[in-house]
Amino acid sequence: MLKKMNNISIDQKLVDKLEEISDPGELMAELFRMFGRRAAIGTSGQWTGVALIDMVIRAGISTPRVYTVDTLRLFPETYDLFRELEKKYNINIEKAAPDFDAVSKMVRNHGEMIFFDSKAKQEYCCKIRKVNPNDKVLDTLDVWITGLRADQSNARSQIKRVDIVQHKQQDGKERPLLKVTPLIAWTEEKVMKYVRDNNVPIHKLLEMERDGWHYASLGCIICTTPISPHETRRAGRWRWFNHQLDDDHKECGLHLTDTKKSS
To answer: Which leading EC class covers this enzyme (predicted)?
Structure first.
């Protein structure tokens, strides 16, 4: 069982030490050795997230803490993937679900398809179903390992590999949290090659293609559609806002580009 070492300060000195570890698997392994169950990989089941699980296990962490946010609107193939990952790696993927009363109140006040009404209501839906459950998990963490990559959008290209963010807990207190993106500099092609070369389970929708149309980004089942060969990678997310928003503004709220703001 992983146990956290005592008296670890989350500061620039620690960041500098971690930045010396170039291998992503070894970086994660060191984090799990240092922080134990206070470190976790957050994944939605896309290319980078599944690669991270495989890498850290190959680096010697047999039971890494892994979680996903279950918005209760995920694709059936997403749930299938999580079961396959759990079986292959003998791990348990924690499912962080939204608060039932909060979802019921939102639907009662705004309707089931609130996200079609406006950008503000889409963000509200994401906050209830995704951001709030994720924040509850972060209350239990000192290290949040994510699958973000620089090639996903211009805004994400500004994210640091190892960074300190301020997390506001449910009790209102703020504290430093390490946000680590081990594969930030990897291209999607490089991640895909790693996944296939190492027989890592793959989300079935990410392998589908018809006349060039394919899924490049996955979220909730209604809010995610395939993209054409000529569209940007996040054009399929909340497609009805494409005439208003570019990829930099296609976010659910989990990952802010200003990492000094609270998560």
So the answer is: oxidoreductase
How far apart, in whole angstroms, are the C-alpha atoms of residue 28 and residue 190?
A: 19
Binding residues for [4Fe-4S] cluster: 125-126, 220, 223
Residue in 147, 252, 255, 263 annotated catalytic: 252
Domain at 171, CATH number = 3.40.50.620
3-state secondary structure of 180: strand
The DSSP H or E segment spanning 166 is: strand 162-168
What pLDDT, on the 0 to 100 scale, is given for residue 254? 61
Residues 6 or more apart whose CB falls under 8 angstroms from that of 20 comprise none
pLDDT one-digit tens code per residue, 172-209: 899 999 999 999 999 999 999 999 999 999 999 999 99
Closest-CA residue to 143 (of 164, 172, 171) = 164
204 is catalytic: no
pLDDT of 137-160, one tens digit each? Answer: 999 999 999 998 877 666 666 788
In a domain, 244, yes or no: no
